[in-house]
């Protein structure tokens, strides 16, 4: 399935190279970098035109950035499947027809595992833990096919990098390798290690939702839906078998489960039946369609006018009813015209920062409540063009704890095959909302 994996930094240099089914030349990375530059320097609508109507025009700046590069690039011999995450590009060249979503899912699983081991996945953290990274890549895939991808099983084989492990490495011992074989290799439940014991048996469920909404300049909701996930922290002894019921499970759609969930049980009864892994894991993710008439917790009122070689903007954020819950971590991103040379602005709440490289303003308001006055940001900008283009979109981010927009709630939890009762069962829910308002 998968031949090779290259991890490339933002300068286009290789920092990780792993081959499972034959060696692919490193020159493929140069081909990929050239394809990225070619795409970023192309004109919109002219990617498939050799001599389009705009081919005679010259532009000082690219229309596209690295984030706009397609996830699949085609060359004469390979399809270049790539994922950009945290300024690192994960490149998988394939020469046979494969399911691209399977490869993308495996790449994200690798990144999630490395995040669990290293804390954050960056060029410096990878360089400091080369041995652990290559050991994980060796264990997670066998001859191009996924083998072991569960954190609990991997930690039984490869110990996470700690100061003690690095000391052991310096004195010549086996670097990061577990001193004994994992206990769950022959288990029917590969995601849960055997012999787990806790003094207090606890399990926590966090329902986290994110709203993606597009709002027109007149305030009309163009599209609105919620993407959610149930994050779980299990500290239960033995081999517990759990059944989780929701109050209104019918509101969710496009569900994706952890391998521990029995899918047939969900299809027939809309309940989650599973043997949980030990520790933190994502039990499920889902999507819920929201009504366009549903009032969003925040409303933006932008006013942008253009003048000669510049313009003026006035933006206000109005909070709405959220069942008494405060709106936290409010941040607004306002892109400016590409020809902007300077910005002068003031705000009555929070603080703002202008990025002259990306030509955008980020306004961090902080915490809002319904009784607070509406935050406002106003100012002027100057451009090198006489009539700057003002077709921009405003991005808004905020969080509301203990507030589920879709209405999904946990009803009950039942435990089987163990004699104890959970000491604590916590149900929490929240919302992390991102909206985009076109102006």
Automatic annotation (TrEMBL):
Q: Which InterPro entries match?
A: Adaptor_comp_med_subunit, AP2_Mu_C_sf, AP_mu_sigma_su, Clathrin_mu, Clathrin_mu_CS, Longin-like_dom_sf, MHD
Q: Which CDD domains match?
A: AP-3_Mu3_Cterm, AP3_Mu_N
The UniProt record lists the MHD domain at 200-438
User: Which GO terms of type biological process are on file?
Assistant: intracellular protein transport; vesicle-mediated transport
- What keyword terms does UniProt attach to this protein? Membrane, Protein transport, Transport
Location in the cell reads:
Endomembrane system
Q: Name one Pfam family in it.
A: Adap_comp_sub
**Where is this protein primarily located?**
membrane
What cellular-component terms does GO give this entry? Answer: clathrin adaptor complex; endomembrane system
- State the Gene3D superfamilies in the record: 3.30.450.60, Mu homology domain, subdomain B
Give the family from UniProt.
Belongs to the adaptor complexes medium subunit family.
From the Swiss-Prot or TrEMBL record, give the protein name: AP-3 complex subunit mu-2
Q: Which gene encodes it?
A: AP3M2
């Amino acid at each position: 399935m998968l031949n090779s994996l290259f991890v490339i930094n933002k300068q286009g240099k290789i920092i990780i190279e792993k081959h499972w089914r034959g060696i692919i030349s490193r020159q493929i990375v140069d081909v990929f970098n050239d394809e990225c530059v070619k795409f970023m320097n192309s004109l919109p609508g002219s990617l498939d035109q050799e001599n389009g109507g705009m081919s005679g025009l010259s532009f000082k700046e690219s229309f596209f950035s690295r984030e706009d590069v397609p996830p699949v690039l085609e060359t004469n011999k390979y399809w270049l499947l790539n994922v950009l995450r945290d300024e690192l590009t994960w490149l998988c060249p394939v020469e046979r027809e494969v399911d691209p979503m399977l490869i993308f899912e495996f790449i994200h699983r690798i990144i999630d595992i490395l995040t669990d081991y290293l804390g954050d996945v960056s060029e410096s953290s990878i360089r400091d833990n080369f041995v652990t990274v290559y050991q994980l890549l060796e264990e997670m895939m066998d001859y191009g096919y996924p083998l072991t991808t569960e954190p609990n099983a991997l930690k039984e084989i490869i110990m996470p990098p700690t100061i003690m492990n690095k000391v052991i490495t310096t004195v010549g011992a086996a670097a990061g390798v577990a001193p004994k074989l994992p206990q769950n290799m022959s288990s029917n439940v590969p995601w849960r290690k055997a012999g787990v014991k806790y003094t207090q048996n606890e399990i926590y469920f966090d329902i986290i939702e994110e709203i993606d909404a597009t709002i027109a300049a007149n305030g009309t909701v163009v599209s609105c839906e919620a993407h959610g996930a149930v994050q779980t922290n299990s500290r239960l002894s033995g081999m517990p078998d759990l059944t989780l019921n929701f109050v209104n499970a019918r509101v969710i759609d496009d569900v994706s489960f952890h391998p521990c969930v029995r899918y047939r049980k969900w299809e027939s009864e809309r309940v989650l039946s599973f043997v949980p892994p030990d520790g933190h894991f994502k039990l499920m993710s889902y999507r819920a369609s929201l009504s366009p008439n549903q009032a969003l917790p925040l409303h933006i009122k932008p006013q942008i006018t253009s003048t000669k070689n510049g313009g003026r903007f006035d933006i206000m954020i109005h909070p709405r009813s959220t069942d008494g819950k405060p709106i936290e971590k409010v941040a607004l991103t306002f892109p400016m015209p590409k020809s902007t040379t300077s910005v002068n602005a003031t705000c009555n709440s929070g603080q703002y920062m202008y990025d002259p490289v990306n030509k955008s303003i980020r306004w961090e308001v902080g915490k809002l409540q319904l009784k607070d006055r509406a935050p406002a940001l106003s100012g002027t900008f100057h451009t090198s063009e006489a009539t700057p283009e003002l077709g921009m979109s405003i991005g808004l981010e905020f969080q509301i704890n203990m507030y589920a927009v879709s209405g999904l709630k946990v009803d009950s939890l039942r435990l089987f095959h163990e004699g104890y009762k959970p000491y604590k069962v916590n149900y929490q829910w929240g919302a992390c909302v991102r909206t985009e308002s076109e102006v």
